[in-house]
Design goal:
This is His-Xaa-Ser system protein HxsD. Helix content is about 65%, strand content about 20%. By secondary structure, the protein is α+β, with helices and mostly antiparallel strands. It folds into two domains: about 80 residues, Alpha-Beta Plaits (2-Layer Sandwich); about 50 residues. It has a four-stranded antiparallel sheet. Helix 2 crosses helix 3 and helix 4 crosses helix 5. It starts with a helix and ends with a helix.
Length: about 140
């Protein structure tokens, strides 16, 4: 199966990726890890990404380099999936951490939320009274 998606040439490895499986951001992240190992060229067609790895070390094993790239793709695909799934929890933890270092921020946020709620209630009251006047 990998032979179908990895092509080894004399001076580079070509990796063909399904665009439905791998997001562009995942490929960028995996590529970033490889900046010290290879020169990287990226290309895209309608449903595929093409990654060309030109090793910086001429004696590098191209197939091993390509397989390591696949490992990084899986690593970052998992990472981005977990971040997306846990986004609300991460946001909550970050807010708690920030608010614990500056308690005044909590009070300001609460006051802002109260002000917004009051404005919202006032707007609703105004709409209700206009509706009542229209019925009379």
């Amino acid at each position: 199966m990998p032979e179908k998606h990895i092509k080894i040439a004399a001076d580079h490895a070509e990796i063909i990726l399904n665009a439905k499986i791998y997001a562009k951001e995942t490929i960028f992240a995996a590529g970033y890890v490889f900046l010290d190992k290879a020169y990287i060229l990226l290309d895209q067609s309608a449903d595929k990404f093409f990654v060309y790895l030109y090793p910086q070390n001429e004696s590098a094993d191209l197939k091993k380099l390509a397989m390591e790239f696949y490992n990084e793709l899986l690593n970052y695909a998992h990472y981005f999936t977990r971040v997306k799934a846990n986004a609300d929890a991460i946001k909550s933890l970050m807010q708690r951490a920030l608010f614990s270092t500056a308690p005044s921020l909590v009070q300001e946020a609460e006051e802002k939320e109260i002000e917004d709620l009051i404005k919202e209630l006032e707007e609703e009251e105004k709409n209700v009274s206009v509706a009542k006047k229209g019925k009379k």
